[in-house]
Amino acid sequence: MAQPKQRKIPLRKCVVTQEMKPKKQLIRVVRNKDGEVFVDQTGKKNGRGAYISKSLDVIDQAEKQQVLNRHLNAKVNGEIYEELRAIVEVED
């Protein structure tokens, strides 16, 4: 009898820590064609995405170093970081 195939867990790299992690442990931030930046909790929206670890320290570091601005080639405002922090706090 054949063993059921194990599904591959999709890995993504955190733009701050450069660590490869399962997609479920990261939050995706997206810039769409119109230049709008938003948090994509589904991970399926169209646009340029950047993944960030679900950690307040990492989010703070991303804000200080403007990491998302560079990755998304767009101005990421403070509201995005607040939303990321809120998501992390809910999941803890």
Automatic annotation (TrEMBL):
It comes from the Bacteria. Residues 12-85 form the YlxR domain. CDD domains: YlxR. Pfam families: YlxR. Coiled coil: none annotated. SUPFAM superfamilies: YlxR-like. InterPro entries: YlxR, YlxR-like_sf, YlxR_dom. NCBIfam families: RNA_bind_RnpM. This is YlxR family protein. It comes from Halobacillus naozhouensis.
